[in-house]
Amino acid sequence: QVQLVESGGGLVQTGGSLRLSCAPSGSLPGATRMGWYRQAPEKQRELVATVTSGGIINYADSVQGRFTISRDNAKNTVYLQMNNLKPEDTAVYYCNARRFVTPTFVAWGQGTQVTVSS
User: Fold this and answer.
1) Contact yes or no for 58/71 (Cβ under 8 A)
2) Distance between CA atoms of 111 and 6, rounded to whole angstroms?
3) What percent of the chain is predicted at pLDDT more than 70?
4) CA gap 95, 18 in Å, rounded
5) What CA–CA distance (Å, rounded) separates 75 from 34?
6) For 71-96, how does the pLDDT look when each residue is reduced to its tens digit (9 = 90+)?
7) 3-state DSSP call for residue 89?
8) What angle do CA 59, 15, 60 make, to 5 degrees?
9) Fewest CB atoms within 10 A around its CB: which of 6, 16, 63, 116?
10) Are the C-beta atoms of residues 78 and 22 closer than 8 Å to each other?
11) Is residue 56 over pLDDT 90?
């Protein structure tokens, strides 16, 4: 079973930057959308940003203009560049890969902690 391996979380001050990376342990099926979700304490998991295999990108309103998602299709690796970080960005960030057409596919990473101090 394919696993997603994340890296790049950590502690940063308000206004700082971090870059998250996510790579699969094996091959992903074609037409798989990749992206990032986050979950803060006592809150539901929410979408941060996604990118399709064709390059269509979607951002949550709260990160638009500060975060940039990118993807290396050759490696099926997805990145999240986070700039101008705010305390409300503090959360566990999860990588996600999902194929919506048959045969469907979904995988999650183990999560990486991002903490922004004020």
Assistant:
1) no
2) 7
3) 100
4) 15
5) 12
6) 998 888 999 999 999 999 999 999 99
7) helix
8) 10
9) 16
10) yes
11) yes
Distance CA 62, CA 28 (A): 29
Burial class of residue 99, CB neighbours in 10 A (0-12, 13-18, 19+)? middle
Question: Residue for token digits 């930057």?
Answer: 17
Cβ atoms 89, 82 nearer than 8 A: yes
Q: Output the six-digit token pair for 30.
A: 């074609």
Tell me the per-residue pLDDT of 25-42, one tens digit each, with 9 for 90 and over: 988 888 899 999 999 999
CA distance 68 to 57: 9
Residue 106: CB atoms within 10 A of its CB come to: 11
Single out the residue of 73, 71, 76 nearest to residue 24, CA to CA.
76
